[in-house]
Amino acid sequence: xxxPIGGGVNVAETDLPKPEGLEGVVAAATALSHVFGxxxxxVYRGYDIHELAGNASFEEVAxxxxxxxxxxxTELDAFCAKLWDNRSLPEGVLTTLRALPADAAPMDALRTxxxxxxxxxxxxxxxxxxxxxxxxxxxxxxxxxxxxxxxRQGKEPVPPRNDLNTAQNYLYQLFGxxxxxxxxxxxxxxxxxxxxxxxxxxxxTARVIASTQSDLCSAITGAVGxxxxxxxxxAPSKVLDMLSEIGAAENVDAWLTDALDRGxxxxxxxxxxxxxxxxxxxxxxxxxxxxxxxxxxxxxxxxEDRALEMLAERKPGRRLYTNVEFYSAAVLAAVGxxxxxxxxxxxxxxxxxxxxxxxxxxxxxxxxxxxxxFVGRTDKxxxxxxxx
Length: 388
Ligand code: ACO
What we know:
Layout: E1 33-36, E2 41-44, E3 47-48, H1 49-52, H2 58-67, H3 73-85, H4 91-98, H5 106-120, H6 131-151, H7 166-175, H8 181-193, H9 201-211, H10 216-227, H11 236-246, H12 252-261, H13 279-291, H14 294-314, H15 324-335, H16 342-363
Antiparallel strand pairs: 1-2, 2-3
C-alpha cells in the first residue's frame, strides 16, 4: 500500500485498504536517508551507515546531511567553527530553564528550551528556515540539556568550549570536565548512528509543521514531543529499567515470560520498517561489548537472545528483531549518562536530521494535509439544552 499524502485522493470514496498508522504510505520524497527494511540497511545520502560509523565525525555527518557531501578539511574547519561558535544560550533561555522544577523530565526541559529559544530569538527564526538557523539550533540543543542537567542538581551551567567537538563538549558541559576519549568516542559513534532515519514519526512531525510555513523552532519543538514517546525514542531508559528489574541471568526467562503473558511490549525490539536486524543495533552491540561493564553486557546479551527466541515463538511471522534502542542503553550508560538523559541525547543527534528534513521540505513545499476516513454519523438534529 503506498500513495503520496496530500495527493488529492478522497480516501472515503475509494476501496483501498486503510493503512493503520500510515504504514507503507509514502509521505515525502527525500534524498537524505533511507531505511531498507527487508535488508536491514540504513543509507545517509548514498553512504551505508557502516561506512560512516567509526569513520566519520558527527560534524562530518551533519555537513553531509545538511549540505549534501562529506566536507574536505577546509570546509570542515569552517563548518565546525560555525557550529561550535553557536553553542552559548541566550540569557532568556537559561532563565526559562532555571524556572523549571528540578524533577521535570529532561525531554520536557528540552522541548521548553527549544520553544523558548524560538520566542526569545524569534527574529533569527523568521521568515523561512535556513541553514544558519539549523546550525544555531543544533548547536544549542546539547547546551540546553547540559544546562538543565546541572541546574536540577543545584549546579551552575558550564559555558561551552569552542575547541571541543560535539560529543566532547556535550559531556564537558554536563559534567564540567573534559571527557576521556573512551567516553566521547562511543558517544560520537552513537550520534552518527542516530542522525537521521527516513520518515520516522518525529521527522514526519517536523515536516508537517514546516509544511504550514511555520518556523524552525516550532517544527523541532513538535519533533521533540514526538520523539519522547516509548514507541519511538523513549524506549532506551525503559530498557535500562527492564535490565535492572531482571537483575541476573537466572531471572531472564521468568521476567520475559511474565511481561509477554501480560501482553507487554519488550522495549528495544520490533520496528515498523526493519524486518531484519537494525544495522545500528549490530554496531551498538559491538560498542556495548567493548565499553560497558562485562556483567551488564552479559545480562543484556542473555536478555536479547531469550527475547528474540520468545518473540519468534509467540509472534511467528512478525519478524521482530533488536532495534537501535536496546544497546543504546548500554552504550549511553557506559558513557556516564543517567537513564533519563538517553532520549534527550538521541535528540542531540536527531536535530540534524529534523532540521535537514525541514530545509528539504521548505525547498519544495506543499502543505501536508492528508484525509481521514469518516466513520461518524451525519444525521443528528440540534436540541436545546433543556431537551437533552
Ligand atoms: N514486544 C512484544 N511484541 C511486539 C513488540 C515488542 N517489542 N513489537 C511488536 N510486537 C508485536 C505486536 O504486539 C503485534 O502483535 P500482534 O499482531 O499479535 O498483535 C505485532 O508484533 C506487530 O506490532 P505492531 O504494533 O503492528 O508494530 P508497529 O510497526 O506498529 O510497531 C514498534 C513498531 C512501535 C517499534 C513496536 O515494535 C514496539 O512497540 N516496540 C517496543 C518499543 C520500542 O522498542 N520502541 C523503539 C522503536 S525504535 C525507534 O523509534 C528509534
